[in-house]
């Protein structure tokens, strides 16, 4: 993008920024998310400015990008979670003794990198299979198979050391 195109882009965005922000707020009812959505729109418009500026109606194009950004945001997994007034009791208790922690660290060190990452994300950070797959850039099936293999390996190693977990 040359300097004249960049100046044209800046002028286009500066005139419409506040209107996009208000429109984003009307979609999501959250000023912080509205700011994020507008930032997404500006970034996408900048990347494709030559194509956008060549369209008959760049405002309509920008509005479509804003709406699609909001729809994409709504599809994210954390949007399906509902806040609770009271947190549930944890289903597990962390190891109390230093020996247990050290054994856990030694057992995890015996796993391969991917298996270790899957176990830590799934069972320590309590991420879903889908979240873990997305974070690691692997399929959900791979997360499931790596989890199963890693847990079996941990059980085997744990029994071999004489301290079943």
Describe this structure in words.
This protein folds into two domains: 3-79, Rna Polymerase Sigma Factor, Chain: A, CATH 1.10.1740; 98-160, Arc Repressor Mutant, subunit A, CATH 1.10.10. 73% of the residues lie in helices and 0% in strands. The protein contains eight helices and no strands. The protein has helices at residues 3-28, 31-47, 49-54, 58-75, 98-109, 113-124, 129-136, 140-160. The longest helix has 26 residues, at 3-28. The mean pLDDT is 86.
List keywords for this structure.
8 helices; 2 domains; single chain; 165 residues; mainly alpha; Arc Repressor Mutant, subunit A
Helix coverage percent of residues? over 70%
Residue ranges: pLDDT <50 for 5 or more in a row? none
Number of helices: 8
Straight-line N-to-C gap:
60 Å
Instruction: Quote the average pLDDT.
Output: 86
β-strand percent reads under 5%
What is the ordering of alpha helices and beta strands?
A: HHHHHHHH
CATH class of the largest domain: Mainly Alpha
Count of structural domains: 2
Structural class, from secondary structure content? mainly alpha
């Amino acid at each position: 993008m040359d300097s004249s195109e960049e100046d044209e882009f800046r002028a286009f965005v500066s005139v419409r920024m506040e209107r996009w922000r208000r429109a984003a707020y009307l979609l999501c009812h959250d000023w912080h998310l509205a700011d994020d959505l507008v930032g997404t729109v500006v970034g996408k418009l900048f990347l494709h400015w030559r194509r956008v500026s060549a369209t008959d109606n760049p405002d309509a194009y920008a509005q479509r990008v804003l709406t699609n950004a909001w729809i994409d945001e709504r599809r994210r997994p954390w949007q399906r979670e509902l806040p609770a007034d009271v947190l549930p009791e944890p289903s597990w208790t962390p190891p109390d003794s230093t020996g247990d922690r050290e054994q856990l660290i030694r057992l995890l060190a015996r796993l391969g990198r991917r298996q270790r990452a899957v176990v830590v994300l799934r069972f320590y950070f309590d991420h879903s299979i889908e979240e873990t797959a997305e974070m690691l850039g692997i399929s959900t099936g791979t997360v499931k198979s790596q989890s199963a293999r890693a847990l079996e390996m941990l059980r085997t190693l744990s029994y071999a050391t004489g301290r079943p977990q």
